[in-house]
User: Fold these one by one.
Assistant:
Number 1:
Amino acid sequence: MRTKTLVLTALSSLSAFGLMAQTSTNVYSLNAVGYINVSVVPGFNMISDQLWASGGNSISNVLSDSNDAIDGAEVFKWTGTGFVSDFANNLVATSPSGWESGGQITVNPGEAVWFYSPIATNLTFVGTVPQGTNTVSIGKGFNLISSPVPQSGDLVTLMGLTNENNGDAVFVYNNPGGYSTYSYSTVTGNYGYGANWNAPVNSPIPSSNPNYGDPQVNVGQGFWYEATAPITYTRVFSVNQ
């Protein structure tokens, strides 16, 4: 229960600062290479880079501040027990990327981070589109993750997250609107995949839709997954889909 308390405290604290997911994203691909544009607003944004970047997916590579483009930005990554962070300040940072602690935090496909931005801006991620079998390990408790492939829409029926535990939950943050909480229960669930999901009151799709109740995410957007037991999220994907 201590871990749950820590994460719920983090959720509450970050929300108070105006946490939000990106307001608009686009993905384009050609021969399995493409880019993702993620629009962020002032304050906190939950983001993911769902492409494999040449040179690796450390923030020093995919979110460089070498030209002062994101000066004042801060990245927070959940470790399972707390956050690690790095601050973009090209004026004082000793690393070429402009990150004070060297920009070693990674944001791989399937991972997500909180990105604090002092201004509204667009982040562009470039790389290879993940294809074939992609897996995300989800541990017991809270996990800050994303779909391992650049898709938007139904996280369950479209993106293959179908091996939930009874009692699992997904927290998706959008602004305006705040958190949408989707919980999976074979006892109380009535909607979505297997008719086992409890939809939030602010569900983005109508109750007449057969996938009503399934979690909804955007390209480049992360989410919290609370698991009652470890699971593996497997997504088989092709750019021809």
Number 2:
Amino acid sequence: MGKNTNNKILDKDGLLEYFNCELEYYNNKIKLSKKYMCNTRLPGLSEVVSENIIKFCLINNNIICQNAKTGDLITNNQEKIECKCFTSSGPISFGPTEKWDKIVFLNAKQWFNNKFTIILVDLKNIDDIWENIKMNKKETFKDQTSKGRRPRITWDALDKQIESKYKSIIFEGSLDDIITQPLV
């Protein structure tokens, strides 16, 4: 099935149903891994779940947005919001041509325990501060994107390079905390 962003639109019941389905799959993989004593790569969250968690949280924080025709989310003011979810200490990757006005990170390292943190970074991909983020010892974000490569960096390394005035934690809690709030 090809990527159709219209498929990402969920109401709160749909989000909960998708989340529970992914949680059941995660738990079943753990059971099988223990039963057969083999290591297995555990799944993270799908895009449909992570982007909708972010969307509902933004709406609950008076940032009215919806799924974009291209990209992740778009506000009523036509600001593009890039959504990034990470479920491990591995690197986050960025499309070399992706453009955004704000970027939101969903820390879902404890998603299987229903714990989330959402961080809003008020930087565009073309802001000097963002372009000069070091992706490694030698190259910046701009260096890599200008070569058509996907920049990759861990959240910890990225977080250290973003001044606190550009980022804010807009949510810490469970999925239940997000979906039980009335939408603005």
Number 3:
Amino acid sequence: MTRNDLNLVPVPEETRTYKPISTNLIFQTIDKLADKNNLYIKQELFDVKQKGQMQRMRFIFDTDHPKFAFEVAIMNSYNKTISLRVGSGSSAAICWNLQVMAPFKIQEKHTGEVREDLLEFLTDSFKIQQEQIQNAQTLWSALDYVTLSKKEISQLAGRMFFEEKLIGADQAMILRRELEKPSFNYDYNPESLNSLYQHTTFAIQNEHPTTFLQTQQGVQSFFVDTYEEITNNKLILV
């Protein structure tokens, strides 16, 4: 769908206990903040379910950094099936898979001051976008330093699938394919923890709208924790 397609989906009426967030309001807010912060949208990705009643919107902004773009991801619904969910972070500029998401995000029912809270969250996100880009570079460098054998990579992938349930069967197949023959030239250490991270974030980019932010945050936490365990000699892979 395009912006025009999404804006044509009827917005439900506001009631005393329900305040819908229209896609038009989201687009206007994103555009105003981008203009205010001298950013322009390089790519928009929309994933909708139930004829537009559930929406995942990803706005990716160009930055001066050679590896990373700034991203805002929004989950919204008109049928009250999911609360408003918003996250911001950095994307790998080469493939647009979300890399690092800020530790804070909004998850709120469509009630009360939800529109004001959305504006406040997005405003703050744009203010710290340079910090998020730097965090992504720091994580990239750290994970790239940890070299793994094929067996160790397989063990970590198995943990994500069987123990943590961060990836499903289809995503595991994508991950295996990307490890064997990457779709992009990431300019990384191909035998590193970073390599596994890049291909995992690629594998989950088509996660269902209702779980996308949660899964991405879970994957990020898994790799940060794994890095700390390995470097502190608390995790032994055999």
